[in-house]
Description:
This protein is an alpha/beta fold. It has helices spanning 11-20, 33-42, 56-63, 75-87, 106-111, 126-135, 166-174, 216-219, 236-245, 263-275, 319-336, 348-352, 355-367, and strands spanning 3-7, 25-30, 47-50, 68-71, 92-94, 115-117, 139-151, 177-181, 184-188, 195-199, 203-209, 225-232, 254-256, 259-261, 283-294, 300-310, 344-346, 372-376. The protein has 2 domains: 3-121 and 320-371, Rossmann fold (3-Layer(aba) Sandwich), CATH 3.40.50.720; 126-310, Dihydrodipicolinate Reductase, domain 2 (2-Layer Sandwich).
Amino acid sequence: MYKILVLGAGMVGSAMAIDLAKNHQVTSADLNLSSLNKIKAKQPNITTLQIDVTKKEKLIETLKSYDLVICAVPGFLGYHTLKTIIEAKKNVVDISFFPENALELNDLAKENKVTAIVDCGVAPGMGNILLGYHNERMLVTDFECLVGGLPKTKKWPFNYKAPFSPIDVIEEYTRPARYVENNKLVTKEALSDVELIDFDTIGTLESFNSDGLRSLIYTMPHIPNMKEKTLRYPGHVEYIQVLKKSGFFDSNIIEVNGIEISPIDFTNKILFKEWLLEKEEEELTVMKITIKGVDQKGENKTIIYDLYDGYCKETQTSSMARTTGYTATAAAQLVLNNLFTEKGVSPPELVGKHKSCYDFVLKYLKSRNVIYRKSSF
């Protein structure tokens, strides 16, 4: 039994703490007392701790007694929190999905002999693990990740509920989307190249460009075509584009009746209520990973992984928390079990290249009924 600190007691952070508490001594830490009380009520054997991760010295002191840290703080806090964890010489699994490049901390992690697995959720995360595995076993020419978290019941006008903070979703809609085409890095506006895609499990969804490749741009430069697109119910993009083009996502301060406010802060407040997932509201995660290339026999090969996962009524855990969080807790077990011991910052594709890690993660997820169905031709 190991001592594990989970920083962040939100929807995903609490799911990870509860999952790890089955076999380990877990502390859930957050600034929000309400979130800590909720997790304590759900799982009394988890220790709770109120902490401000921006207080660096206090955080370093807190980290001393733990064997492993899971970082699930909001994205805007992620980079500096991860840096502090590394400086404290603690192994870490990170799912804060901050906008900065985590690989910039690679040298620091190596110097401090730290194993840091970053971006280890569903996407980025599991898609990277799958690509990393097959990249070692075939000459990959194409990689495409289609992924989305959606409410089971549509509600006009957005047909969407956010399993996490709306401000993080808005970031997906505003950050320029990078993808690789014919060995060239292409940057396009987010929400561009809308396509309708048919899924057997849910019907027709629309896909659009989002900046989800992240580390793959740097770790897999030999793959000529790589793209990640977000999935939503049809019609969602048009409504978001209306808000975006009308200035509702702008961060510049404006004055309204003598009060200064940024449009994006106003929009975030409005959408928080509109997109709020109600307690026990059913939602789902859809993902399709397509990997194309030439196998070791010189034959063309296409490998597809499909995921359709729903809210778990038994554990009252959202699908996005399950698919994101359990990938991270699987990675935590890899580190604790010494199945992955490489020092430095490792995105999931560098974990998945090892067959033992790939097999372990898929088995771990399957045991929690998160099942990736594989087909190839």
